Amino acid sequence: MNWSPHLDALLGSADSICVLTGAGISAESGVATFRGPDGLWAKLKPEELANFDAFMRNPELVWEWYSERKRIIHDVAPNAGHRALAEMESLVRDFTLVTQNIDNLHRRAGSAKVRELHGNIERSFCVSCGRFDNSATVGEDRKPPRCRQCGGLMRPDVVWFGEMLPQEEMEAAEDACRRCELFLSVGTSAVVYPAAGLPLLARASGAYIVEVNTERTDISSRVNETLPGGAGTVLPALVERMKELRKARS
Ligand code: BJW
Ligand code: ZN
Fold first, then answer.
1. What is residue 95's three-state secondary structure?
2. Domains plus CATH for the chain?
3. Catalytic residue positions, numbered
4. Can you give the pLDDT at residue 142?
5. Looking at the CA of 149, which ligand is closest?
6. Ligand 1: nearest atom to the Cα of 190
């Protein structure tokens, strides 16, 4: 696999790395992406499923859609791309993995320093009193369950359009962008803000930005380097090179 001498040097020396992932990294595990001809939004309208008003209009439909996705996610396994990022974490002093994915596959692959910008499908909370429920059984029914505390509707703990991202996660992601030397944008179309602004923030703060994607995206022309290909192939190659260079250094 080919990359520039500058990226090669950073693979050997960068002390601070931030990675942003999107649905593309889980595609090779069998989880559908959102956009594109085979994406979730090609068949289902986001405005009917991914905002709070849609949920309140038809909680059964939205809950059932998330239950179905939860079943799929439970049945799949992390892939070589997820595993490579878990290994990358162990090679770098200051490492932050920022994900837009709600599928929990990074943690299942062994990543610990994960910031989840759009929530996690494993959790739900009550729209009336805000009580969280992390129990695995919530969501296996077709109907949205009721809160054990107040009887309110439980909703998935994911971030829908028009909703704020979790503040602590977003601030940690922005901090990581400001201090990293190398930033990888992996498997995201980079169209959904504020996440799509992170590579640009990292670039404005002096980082070298590399995009890993099977296609060109909205930010391809604004990154320093693009590595075309699947995350499950490109990321393991980057990590192998990091290990080789860092072993030679120590
Ligand atoms: C591979 C691969 C392989 C495939 N290897 N690569 C106008 C302008 C600017 C902003 C706005 C606007 N109007 C509204 C907004 C704001 C809005 C927004 O950005 N909208 C844009 C779409 C225009 N953002 C929000 O509303 C956010 N909140 C917010 O801004 O709050 C402030 C605010 C509050 C109140 C009022 C106004 C502002 C919230 C965004 C929440 C996004 N939620 C979702 C659903 C999560 C739950 C769920 O999963 O159901 O998050 S939408 C969906 O998109 C999901 C994803 O995380 C997100 C990003 O998608 P992602 O990951 O990039 O996937 P894809 O499918 O798009 O791309 C996959 C990529 O992988 C492709 O490039 C492939 O090529 C690639 N690929 N195989 C490598 N093997
Ligand atoms: Zn409640």
1. strand
2. 1-31+78-118+165-250 (3.40.50.1220), 33-75+121-158 (3.30.1600.10)
3. 118
4. 72
5. 2
6. 63
Confidence (pLDDT) at 141: 64
212 close to 21: Cβ distance less than 8 angstroms: no
Q: Over the chain, what is the mean pLDDT? A: 95
Residue (of 227, 157, 166) closest to 194 by Cα position: 166
Q: What pLDDT shows up at residue 140?
A: 58
Compute the distance between CA of residue 1 and CA of residue 226 in angstroms, rounded to an integer: 12
Note the pLDDT tens digit of each residue in 149-181: 999 999 999 999 999 999 999 999 999 999 999
pLDDT of res. 248: 80
Decide whether any atom of ligand 1 lies within 6 Å of the 164 Cβ: yes
What is the mean pLDDT of the segment spanning 113-142?
A: 86
For residue 134, name the pLDDT band (cuts at 50, 70, 90). confident
The contacts found for 109-115 with CB under 8 angstroms, 24 or more apart, are 109/78, 109/82, 109/83, 109/85, 110/83, 110/86, 111/82, 111/85, 111/86, 113/89, 115/169, 115/172, 115/173, 115/176
pLDDT tops 70 at residue 246:
yes
Strand partners, 212: 186, 227
Contact (Cβ atoms closer than 8 angstroms) between residue 214 and residue 228: yes
Q: Is the torsion defined by CA of 189, 26, 126, 146 positive or negative?
A: positive
**Cα–ligand 2 centroid distance for 153 (angstroms):** 7
